[in-house]
Design a protein that fits this description.
Organism (chain A): Ureibacillus xyleni
Radius of gyration of chain A: 17 Å
Number of strands of chain A: 0
Helix content of chain B: 55-70%
Number of domains of chain A: 1
Pfam families (chain A): MrpF_PhaF
Distance between the termini of chain B: 21 Å
Keywords (chain A): Antiport, Cell membrane, Ion transport, Membrane, Transmembrane, Transmembrane helix, Transport
Largest interface: A-B, 21 and 30 residues
Shape of chain B: globular
GO molecular function, one term (chain A): sodium:proton antiporter activity
Number of strands of chain B: 2
Structural class of chain A: mainly alpha
Oligomer: heterodimer
Helix content of chain A: over 70%
Order of helices and strands of chain A: HHH
Number of helices of chain B: 5
Strand content of chain B: 5-15%
Strand order of the largest sheet of chain B: 1-2
Order of helices and strands of chain B: HHHHEEH
Number of helices of chain A: 3
Protein name (chain A): Multisubunit sodium/proton antiporter MrpF subunit
Largest sheet of chain A: none
Structural class of chain B: mainly alpha
Strand content of chain A: under 5%
Number of domains of chain B: 1
């Protein structure tokens, strides 16, 4: 019973990622694609959590935290590139 | 156009310490749980990259005044010296030692020389990643 519920939730997360992938490919502007990629990262975190419940292990919790950190930094890098046109500034004159 | 990213800079100041201490936790927990020197080094490098993105490369170099190429050399020396120490003691290359010690606060702890080798891996990974990112970022 519990396994069925978890599998249904996992399927729904996969459907959400597929819909977001449509937004990544067909998105009219670049901020649409950046936000869709960030949301895909969050959905992947949830999917990893459900898989770790299904496999009855705690070994994936570190992967969840690291994926959260990397999604955060990647989204910030994307948004800074969209706004400024450069990710790493050489000198702070702003 | 003058832009002001005060929210990003304030967030980066706090999140940097959370990511850095999590990297230290991954490094020390690598013997019994997933993690180790490689992942810890990469997470530390990503914390410094967050500072570089939020501020700029001159500010971060004045905050963390480390030449990362020397960091690679120090890491290689630590890893090589750990491996060569067992040759001096008359054992084969890369023989590791461990024992149990009673530390003042932590209590009974097992200290292993593989942690020293892992420290070398950690320093090399941080140094190589930051050298690559700084070299690409400084290009005019």
């Amino acid at each position: 019973m519990k396994e069925t519920i978890l599998l249904i939730a996992l399927t729904l997360f996969m459907v959400a990622i597929a819909i977001l992938l449509y937004r990544v490919i067909m998105g009219p502007s670049m901020p649409d694609r950046a936000i869709a990629l960030d949301t895909i990262g969050v959905n992947l975190i949830s999917a990893i959590a459900i898989v770790s419940i299904l496999l009855k292990t705690k070994a994936f919790l570190e992967a969840i935290l690291i994926l959260g950190i990397l999604a955060f930094i990647g989204t910030i890098a994307f948004s800074k590139y969209i706004e400024r046109g450069v990710i790493v500034e050489r000198k702070g004159d702003s | 156009m003058k832009t002001n990213d005060v929210i990003l800079q304030f967030t980066a100041k706090i999140v940097f310490f959370m990511i850095f201490f999590y990297a230290v936790h991954i490094f020390f927990a690598g013997h019994y749980t997933p993690g180790g020197g490689f992942v810890g080094g990469l997470v530390t490098a990503s914390a410094i990259v967050l500072l570089i993105i939020a501020f700029d490369i001159k500010t971060v170099q004045s905050i963390i005044p480390i030449n990362y190429i020397y960091l690679v050399a120090v890491g290689l020396i630590i890893a090589g010296a750990t491996a060569a120490f067992s040759m001096i003691m008359g054992k084969p290359f890369f023989t590791h030692y461990f024992d149990y010690f009673n530390l003042p606060i932590l209590g009974k702890t097992s200290l292993h020389t593989a942690a020293l080798f892992d420290l070398g891996v950690y320093l090399v990974v941080v140094g190589v990643t930051m050298t690559i990112i700084q070299t690409i970022g400084e290009d005019e």
